[in-house]
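lol ok so funny story. i was supposed to be doing the assay writeup but got distracted and ended up predicting the structure for this chain instead. priorities right. anyway since i did it might as well share w the group, maybe its usefull for someone
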Amino acid sequence: MFELPKLLVTGAQGQLGYELVAYAQEHGFDVTAFPRESLDICDRDAVARALDHYQPEFIVNAAAVIPLQEGDDPGLRVNDYGVEGLAMACAERGIALVHLSCAEVFDGLKEGAYREDDAVSPLSAYARSKCRGEAAVRELLDRHIILRTGWLFSARGQSFVRRLVEQGRENRQVQVSDGLVGCPTSAADLGRVVVAMIKQLHVGADAWGTYHYVASDCTSWFGFAEAIVAAARQYEDLKLDALVPVPQEQMDRRLRPARSVLHCERILNTFGVHQRPWRSGLTQILRTLYSLTD
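and the output, tada:
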């Protein structure tokens, strides 16, 4: 019988971490889940103790700090110093690492979709910290996957989907960023992708390196918001009369690339992972959201 590897997930309280743990456990994996309050990856002694105690074969690092405004936030150490320590600990113990990164490592000026070998050009302190984390993983650990994604959404926590629905219940108008283009990606869908990659790597696929995965079909952030509202109205009558487009620079004090579109052919050709439409992921997320609030 095929024996699944032991997993340890950091950042298990986040959108991806939660969905990944649930999906992996549902499919028979032995998963140890650490939210940040239980394991700060910047605490290298704590990381060493955790790895020695649980002895996972794979670590999935979903821990990250995303600041609300531009600046060198001390919390950004999680994205570079913490990742560096995690990679060092994995290298010392022969553990494989799947590290989650983001489309914001690119500047968004390319007209087409970014490929894995395109040069990074981060705009923000956050994106620079993610680039440093990626570089540390590549330098320190041979058996690694860096998986870039973007525009994650889910039904839990303070996700954009949940916040927009809550605002639509209370307000007749809601301001939404205009001018950004990307590929909204369900955290549940990304959890499926991570598990599919780990299964193949565990049985000997020599496919380490950097990959991209986002859902298929691009849209604007404003178009995504319109789709959320339309889907929510299938479940309830919202107070909302109109979404108001507002330039991104007026909505957010953190620099973001205008285009966050990733090319996903490599993960398809290597792992057979097909992109799923973001609208089908949104349908699933809204169904989950309303089951949680029933």
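The mean pLDDT is 94. The longest strand covers residues 96-102.
back to the writeup now i swear
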